[in-house]
Design goal:
By secondary structure, this protein is of the alpha/beta class. The protein is built from eleven helices and ten strands.
Length: 263
């Protein structure tokens, strides 16, 4: 994003490192730019958005072209859903391309997904343009599940719990709710004292935190993985709160355009 921004482009950045308030602002500015580029009298200056997977779900926005790091078929199809979403162009003008980084291997968390995609492509004569067909999708997920193994699909025994019950309970919702986590990696919340968030953070400091305050602060917060949270804390950039979250005290660690500093 920083490299492209230095060129003759209108550049935008989106990631979960940005709070919801700034993501909304960026999406609105991006939509305005795309609308302007689509106008008959547009200056044809290119618009480019560099984004993490955050753009692949729940974002109704349409690009002329999508270029994505190689991943699983489900992620690629999600990304493709942002290409010519409004049907203004022909299929030939609406290309979705995947690339790999020459300097490093496929990330470990994506290795099985990429392998399953390559297998599905081989089974369909390496025609990547046909990978969104039901047969190819079935081949992909069968290979992905085979690579992971049956035990990996239900490590906590959630399905057996519902089939057989827990401790004699036919519908063990409470126990299953305790065991099941859609995203296993724990995160900690960092609140940003910016905009409306500044007054809301002041309420937390004064002991006036309530469900309403925390709900409104969700718009001015970022979820941090443990290593990043610990680095920020070690740098003296956080004011820790009793429930395990924190307020960012060093605002140099946050940018409205790129989010919370990864370092």
């Amino acid at each position: 994003y920083r490299t492209l921004r230095a060129g003759p482009y209108r550049c935008f950045h989106l990631s979960a490192a940005m709070c919801i308030a700034h993501r909304r602002q960026t999406l609105q500015a991006l939509q305005n730019a795309l609308d302007a580029l689509a106008a008959p009298d547009a200056d044809h200056k290119k618009g480019i958005c560099v984004s993490t997977q955050v753009i692949e779900a729940g974002v109704d926005i349409s690009f002329a072209r999508v270029i994505r790091l190689a991943a699983g078929m489900d992620s690629i199809v999600q990304a493709a859903g942002r290409c010519n979403r409004e049907g203004r162009r022909s299929a030939a003008e609406s290309r979705v391309s995947c690339f790999r980084l020459e300097c490093c291997a496929v990330p470990q968390m994506l290795h099985q997904h990429v392998h399953a995609l390559q297998y599905a492509a081989r089974c369909h004569e390496n025609d990547y343009a046909q990978l969104n067909t039901p047969d190819a999708i079935r081949t992909y997920f069968q290979e992905l599940y085979f690579a992971r193994g049956a035990e990996a699909l239900d490590k906590k025994g959630i399905l057996d719990a519902f089939r057989h019950g827990i401790s004699g309970c036919q519908f063990p919702f409470a126990q299953v709710a305790t065991e099941f986590q859609l995203i296993e990696t724990p995160t900690r919340t960092v609140y940003l004292p910016i905009g409306e968030g500044e007054a809301l953070c002041a309420q937390l400091r004064s002991g006036m935190g309530s469900r309403s305050v925390y709900r409104r602060l969700g718009t001015y917060s970022v979820a941090c993985y443990a290593p990043q949270f610990e680095k920020l804390d070690a740098a003296g950039a956080l004011e820790l709160l009793p429930e395990g979250s924190a307020i960012l005290t060093d605002l140099n660690q946050y940018s409205a355009k790129t989010g919370l500093a990864p370092d």
